[in-house]
Amino acid sequence: MGRVGRALVWHELLERTRDRWVIVISVLFAMLASGVSLYGRSAEAEVAKLTGPSLVTLSSLLVPLVALVLSHDAIVGERERNTLGLLFSLPVSRFEVVAAKLIGRSLALAAAVGLGLGAAMLVSEPEGSGALRALMGPTLLLGLAFLSMGLLISTLARRQTTAASIVVVVWFGLVFFYDLGVLGLLIVSDGELPQSLVSALVVGNPTGLYRIQMMHAFTSTDALQDLGLSMGPPGTLTTWLLWGGWFVVPAAISGALLWRRKVV
Predict the structure, then answer these.
(1) Is 15 within the bounds of a domain?
(2) What tens digit of pLDDT does each residue of 43-58 get?
(3) How far apart are CA 140 and CA 41, in angstroms?
(4) Is 264 a domain residue?
(5) 56: three-class secondary structure by DSSP
């Protein structure tokens, strides 16, 4: 990436860190995560087993929302301000523009995740701090997956209000209603769906993979089986391929659409 591309990354980072909605959600995440850690300190149960799953649930709700808010106006916002043509007139390729927006907003996302989990680490017991450190990487991957989805939505949408509406629907759909849909399939089929299909449906959603991966890390397979879940996370290679696909594929489609001038 050239000098102009690096300047765009820095510009995106500064603009996103000033976004009031990003600040509000990030501060809310930090406050709630700190509250969970403080509760874990006061409880008599093992800190990691109590704090970890609670923070997994909290992160799976708020981090996708932060990521979608960060990325929903990346392209459509430039179009509505009539600055997209000016941006493409700079000595930088369209793929570099997409990459700069993705990198700059990813850095802002990393700051939001670091603020939330970092605040929780400050008030946590040493054992709980270890659990929080284990959460950092997967939580950031979850956010990056949704950030890339938001970028694609922003590329496809014609108006910023439309993009905002779509990301809300995507957030509700993947974070809340997707699991209910899988549960509904199990009920309709009277539990006759193959376990491999159920596992594929669960990990086919980045939120589902994140929850299964982290619950397995904090509670072990035996604890999941006690809850009626006979599945575990996929293998390491499959997990990395899934995370990479959710991040790379939407961003690549966005770059290809811009390259073909379909959304300018």
Answers:
(1) yes
(2) 555 555 667 778 888 8
(3) 25
(4) no
(5) helix
